[in-house]
Amino acid sequence: MELLGLAFALQVLRISVPYALAAMGGTLSERSGVVNLALEGMLLGGAFSATVGSFYGGAAAGVVAGAFGGLLVAALYAWVVLRFGADQIVAGVAINLLALGATRYLLKLIFDSASSSPSVPGFDGAGWAGLFIALTALCVVAIHGWLMLTPGGLRLRAVGDQPAAAHSLGVDVLAVRWRAVLAAGVLAGLGGAWLALDNHGFVDRMSGGRGYIAIAAMIFGRWQPLTATAACLLFGLADALQLNLQTTTTLLPREWVQMLPYVLTMVALVGVAGRSRPPAALGTPFGR
Amino acid sequence: MRTRAATSIAIALLIAMAAASLLILAYGQSPGHVYAVLLGHTWGDRYGLGQVLFKSTPLIFTGLAVAVAFQAGLFNIGAEGQLLVGGLAMALVGARCGGLPAPLAIGLCLAAGALAGAALGALPGWLRARFGAHEVINTIMLNFIAQALALWLGRRFFFVEQTVHTPAIADCARLPALGLAGSAASVGFALALLAAIAVHGLMRHTRLGFELRALGQSATAAAAGGVAIGRAIVVAMALSGGLAGLVGAGTVLGYKGYYEEGIASGSGFMGIAVALLGRNRPLWIVPAALLFGTLAHGGLAVNALVPKEIVEVIQAIVILAIAASSSDLQRLAAQGQR
Description:
The complex is a heterodimer of chains A (288) and B (338). Chain A is mainly α and 288 residues long.
């Protein structure tokens, strides 16, 4: 096994794509003050609708459908959380359970199967996958630039840190948060589309905790797009190592490698508690 | 206040039922017929009733776990991991109990489960108290860590060759079945009821319970009143984890007789729903758990007509609807940001 080869680097990138897209969504949403545990459900919803889209209209339609599926899940989450002020953690967990149940139900309704969809057109050849990876990288840079350097990004961060002050300056807090959560849905939905199309089909529970890993990466990256993406690559590297070590050595038990991102996140949470803080108004509803 | 709570729960159940009816219609079945079958196979015969009690047992424990933390203003999303280490500990102790009198063996197993769960709950509590690290993220992370750790421990040290389960526990450590037409219901259900009463007594009538509730109302006020905040946070999380660690009473001691990879998985998250529906009141947790237990077994019963996944959708919608309409929760949410 060649750990430093091009094939290995590509494998790390492939694994990191859904992490990075979901983490970007999480960052936008949380910087606007909305906790986003629902990323897991958005990934799953995106993966399922991408599969349906690709089944009926090919891979390109699948990508669009994936983004739309994520958007749909996000809209439900935003509606419950922003319109009704539901507890964001409870609602996030519930959305994830809902996505799990709903995708299984639809799997039976549409594809008459309890566990997986039929094979659908996906990313064949290097072209599609390469393009998707490049666009993901571009997306990360664009979001970082927008969030950190533009007035729009400043408004979003202000809404997450000082909603009352932003409101008094004429910023529509709820509208900014709605847009941030919907954007998170599109991004995570695209991440889900990648999962499904890379796999040429949907499998029950295929998001497999990636939404939570993305949240871990976002926290590890201190709520900043570039560092969060670096954390995603680190977690992707751990995954790729695990996949390769599993077949070749018994140097480190694979369960230990599996634990790594989660342990690192706990350490980061404790370590950065003094230096880096989440957005000040994270999780707090804002009434009109 | 009380009528508002009742209204919000009634609305939530109505919304969930409407959604369920739509999903059933979409599958080409009649909602009325499906509901009748569901009720007939759950509360209509002794076996069904037993299965409902069996499915409700873990939910009572996890519902209590979430509710205790909630009353102290903390959010324990880690029941999923806590029930897992608790179950493993129970099975390991149970396998080594041969020859002991049954009450002692069972007592040891329960203590082992509660302690393991409490340890896993206390850790995020301590991280919160000492470093201000948010317990929500840490309990979620610990769910994954516990899962991988239990799997590694099992594969490396404990599982029976070629399986993903531990050796059988001694007969004296088994909880007797309730004798409901061969259903899986055991004395574990009675233990869950006792736990609900005990938690009710603890929260309402003891100093510790008062301190935990004071913490949940306002940390500042509790501190001014002489409550050691850090200690109370750790105790609340340990208590919560310990309750989740007892889930194995129904599954490990009362039914399977061993710990198995994935046993009772999902009960931790569902405990959040149960606690919400039961308004975090220990005694109301029981009917809430029975409702979700009915749905869980009823889903299997109607699986020939409609996908049992409809039940998962309904459960999620109940949580969403209650969260959206509950003013109590919003107050808690605001306090969670201290």
